[in-house]
Amino acid sequence: MAKKGSAADAMLRRRSHSSVGDEAPSDKELLRAIEVAGTVADHAALRPWRVIAIRGEARERVGRAIAEDSGATGSDAEKLARKPLRAPLLLAVVVSPKPSAKVPDWEQEAVASGVAHALSLLLDEAGWGVMWRTGHYTRSGAVHRAHELAPDERLLGWLYVGSKPEKKSGKRKPVTAKKHLSSL
Ligand SMILES: Cc1cc2nc3c(=O)[nH]c(=O)nc-3n(C[C@H](O)[C@H](O)[C@H](O)COP(=O)(O)O)c2cc1C
After folding, report:
1. Which of 9, 57, 72, 78 gives 20 to 30 Å between its CA and that of 183?
2. What is the DSSP string of 97-134?
3. Range 34-38 average pLDDT
4. What is the pLDDT of residue 168?
5. Given pLDDT bands bounded at 50, 70 and 90, which one contains residue 181?
6. 139 CB near ligand 1 (under 6 Å)
7. Domains in the chain: how many in total?
8. Domain containing residue 80: CATH number
9. Does 128 fall in a domain?
10. What is the chain's percent helix, strand, coil content, to nearest 5?
């Protein structure tokens, strides 16, 4: 077992929650979590990412964009438009590439992805229910516009955040480390 309070302990305890309650962290709490999450390894410290907090009515705008991009109509479109309403707070994690002769685009995306993982871990540890979600529409036109992204920016998806449910999560598929480690 991992030592209580260690990074390993926090990682083993973290679970995604597909259903969360109505409370959400304040902007102040978010800023602190982002400050910490932003300390992930970052080649040349480019900070090639940003986070957009989406609350209240803004979630409906994102929902309308998701429906528009899908091309669905009627009740199918309405169902898609309701997706962002599953949590009181969505954190859109954005890859925001910075000009660099030595750090290629894929490295910058890796940094942004690290930030998203760290942020979800920190929020979980702070007692919030979190789930990283995406969809075929994550990088499509209307969704891009709804987030007011610059042309070279793109989404990594959304951390859906709300109060952590009481219900215990099911067992996680085990990680068989031996299958993932080799030597040269
Ligand atoms: C980039 C990314 C996108 C994801 N998108 C979805 C999604 O759209 N829907 C979903 O059910 N799970 C999605 N997941 C997986 C969940 O966030 C979660 O990790 C998974 O359900 C396993 O649960 P656990 O985190 O408790 O191990 C995504 C994970 C990542 C890293």
Report:
1. 9
2. ----SSS-HHHHHHHHHHHHHHHHHHHHHTTEEEEEE-
3. 98
4. 83
5. very high
6. no
7. 1
8. 3.40.109.10
9. yes
10. 40, 15, 40
